[in-house]
Amino acid sequence: MDLFEYQGKELFRRHGIPVPRGIIAETPESARAATEILGGTSVVKVQVQVGGRGKGGGIVLADSPDDAEEAAARLFRDGFGGRRVSRVLVEERLEIAGEFYAAMLLDRSTGTDLAMVAAEGGVDIEELARTKPEALRRLHIDPEIGIHPYHLRALTGALPPEARDLVENILAGLYDVLTKEDATLVEVNPLVLLDDGRVFALDAKVTIDDNALFRQSEIEMFKSVHPIDPVEFRAREAGLQYVKLDGEVGIIGNGAGLVMSTLDLVQQAGAGAANFLDVGGGASADSIATSLEVILSDPSVRSVLVNIFGGITRCDLVAEGLLEALERVTPTVQIVVRLDGTNADEGRKILEDAEHPRIVPARTMLEAARRAADLAHGEAP
Ligand code: GDP
Ligand code: MN
Hints:
Low-confidence stretches: none
Order of helices and strands: HEHEEHEEEHEHHEEEHHEEHEHEHEHEH
Mean pLDDT: 92
Bound molecules: guanosine-5'-diphosphate, manganese (II) ion
CATH topology of the largest domain: Rossmann fold
Structural class: alpha+beta
CATH superfamily of the largest domain: Succinyl-CoA synthetase domains
Strand content: 25-35%
């Protein structure tokens, strides 16, 4: 099974190989939103399993969210290389100082793995082997022995000295992908050295052995993988557990148990959760603020329920975080807040004193769930 670039990169990430920050987009609008999240510029990369995307207009350096939206719209409309395009990968722009090539594959003729590294990237590797063989290093690796530092040093010998250590780490990671994920090919073209000295896998081509899919259930899941939407991406980057659902109440809680019981109560109150977000144990003011921003960026949210049980988390800090968040975002919906546990009285007082028109305090979980459900159904606060 051939993986898409974004799936290959997901495997790379899991094995510690640096890849650019990236967001999958299925619409031109989300390509725009992704570019905004990535700082206003991006690289829009068509996700199809055909080569030569760079030369054929399938990779667009977008200088603005507008550019990215336009590029994505074109790719979705026209397709690429005769294929329909349903996804583009929107990645951060990197300042490239040098391009290399790295690959590992199962070599059936020798019954070993073959590793290759070239000091030039973004080029046709067969062509390079013919015209400039000294730039390419090839090494067979006996799977009984595995990859060792002397292999890595030999492979990186033709690269600029300042890049060798980092490339060695990446090669060890690629060998991990090859062996642990049952890949028959992992290819990185190009592997890039950045202006600041870091090395990234800019492209990923991974083929998984179909005969091994039965024991690679996670990879099997790639067959039906759901794209990461920009809201989920922001939550993940902030270290928050965010789950999108199809109701209308946005839920923020701390701790999985509390969040789950909040979902149940909202349901009992006759509404459904639009999403939920677990801010975790040590919920700080900043994480509450980010949580609220994330929850409110979901257009199906009609009301928000914040349910915090203070333990290590202090309710007064949560209250401050909420007020801080309301300076950063301007919600059009009401936010029901129930605070209990450590410093709950102080927290409630802070909210009461603030008299914020969007905050609706509630004493108990049940009362909070009912308020949030009513508000979601359009009742005045
Ligand atoms: P392929 O043509 O399908 O193999 O697509 P790649 O992912 O290998 O990208 C092709 C080329 O696009 C690379 O060799 C780079 O030169 C260029 N490229 C991709 N991402 C970036 C980026 O973040 N910054 C710059 N400057 N160039 C990029
Ligand atoms: Mn490539």
